[in-house]
Amino acid sequence: MGSSIRLFSIRGIDxxxxxxxxxxxxxxxxxxGLRAGSLESAAFGVIAISLLFVLVTLHELGHSxxxxxxxxxxxxxxxxxxxxxxxxxxxxxxxKQEFIIAIAGPAVNVVAALLMxxxxxxxxxxxxxxxxxxxxxxxxxxxxxxxxxxxxxxxLALFNLIPAFPLDGGRIFRSLLALRLNxxxxxxxxxxxxxxxxxxxxxxxxxxxxxxxxxxxVFIFSAGTQEARxxxxxxxxxxxxxxxxxxxxxxxxxxxxxxxQAMNMMIxxxxxxxxxxxxxxxxxxxxxxxxxQASRSAASHSFITSIMRRxxxxxxxxxDLFEVQRRLNESQLEAFPVAVNGQFLGMxxxxxxxxxxxxxxxxxxxxxxxxxx
Length: 373
Ligand SMILES: [Zn+2]
Hints:
Strand content: 5-15%
Largest sheet: 4 strands, mixed
Order of helices and strands: EEHHEEHHHHHHHHEEHHEEH
Bound molecules: zinc ion
Structural class: alpha+beta
Distance between the termini: 47 Å
Radius of gyration: 26 Å
């Protein structure tokens, strides 16, 4: 995570600022400053946007706490000029859980809006006309900042409720459809609706000269396509278990193998990743990237045990391929050793998973079609 800076941590979740974050503050300062031609309005812009990001953080914490409630680990929240993202380990495909996790974010904004309206009424701040307030030209006072943030908080909630992936509204919409339909079907309908909305946004942006809106439209359009594809892949791969596709016979190294021997095996054996096995027990793993790096730096006769990874997780025979693929992507590896209680059984690779997916895709497409008739 070299591209972001940790601010603080709450319930095990790191809140991080992306290094490009200051750009949004700069943009706000310039935008507001130039419009009113004063340093005071520039300061207004910077403070208002900072406050808005406090609300964005609370929104993401809403998602995060809901996810934690269902036992889904939350890795971090990253704040960037485009907004906030809570990185969940996986999004549950139980429609009820997805609904609660997705709606928890906008719900935080609704609660914040109610609280702020209450405070405004109690201390006598006039919330007034949103169109005037959103211009943000009311001068640098606590009241004008308050009113500005109040309305932007509402916009934040409404924008996120637009039913298009990857916005919360898209997930809420899908989860509601998934109460009645199968998950793949629900996703493809939600993705189509999202893409239609994106196209309308794009057209509106084109005619109104809203470049930012057009960028969002492109982003939403491709997110819809991606989500639909991902869910299809998942539905195909989840029914396949490791024991159905892994290779039990692969080249292995033993603790007394050298880097040179591993290189030879790679070149002549056409295998890129090597389990290190010590009399049937899995002792370590040597991924392709590590071997290449070692071949450049380490002495070729040094033992494999000095460079192998001892912490690589193995997969079991009954793990499903989607989960294995997710873990491979996460750890940026091409393969995992397969082992049960430390006993080495074989290896499973990205390539094998991709091939299995290729083969199964067609059969699952036809079964989907027959279901919808
Ligand atoms: Zn959200």
